[in-house]
Design goal:
Blueprint lengths: L1 H23 L5 E12 L6 H12 L8 E7 L1 E5 L5 E4 L14 E3 L5 E10 L5 E5 L4
Parallel strand pairs: 1-2
Antiparallel strand pairs: 1-6, 3-4, 3-5, 6-7
Helix pairs in contact: 1-2
The chain binds zinc ion.
The site of zinc ion (ZN) has 8 residues, from loops.
Length: about 140
């Protein structure tokens, strides 16, 4: 299942980031991931609900159990083949805003990228936010 592979990759990235943090800062161990903020490619062709269900399943028994999965749609960089106009698509509507042409060139747009994590540490009640990396 496509969703399963995306979610597994996302979860691996998040858990690795937390492990790394706990190794470097054992005095402020992360005990739980509260939220994962991610960007989903515009043409990833997956259901947000299916992603959430997969995530819940895979996160069970890990630090991310019960965490919230927040999805944002990643804009897709496009170029019109007719007039050469470059633009970003935020909806799956492949029409050039400059000339109305429908021969649109684009690349990517399939991935699920971790943007940031909100976690709970052992030593404090404060939630911390870590920035991920995109790409
Ligand atoms: Zn155009």
């Amino acid at each position: 299942m496509h969703e399963a592979a995306l979610v597994q990759g996302l979860l691996d990235t998040a858990l690795k980031a937390v492990e790394e943090h706990n190794r470097q800062q054992p005095e402020a161990r992360v005990k739980r991931i509260e939220e994962l903020v991610c960007q989903l490619g515009l043409i990833a062709c997956v259901e947000a609900q299916t992603l959430a269900a997969c995530f819940e399943l895979f996160a069970e028994g890990t630090l991310a159990q019960g965490a919230r999965l927040t999805l944002e749609t990643a804009p897709l960089a496009c170029r019109c083949e007719s007039c050469g106009h470059s633009f970003e698509l935020h909806q799956r509507r492949f029409v050039c805003p400059a000339c109305g042409g429908d021969t649109i060139h684009f690349s990517g747009g399939h991935g699920l990228t971790l943007l940031s994590l909100r976690v709970e540490s052992e030593d404090t009640d404060h939630a911390r936010t870590y920035s991920g990396h995109s790409g």
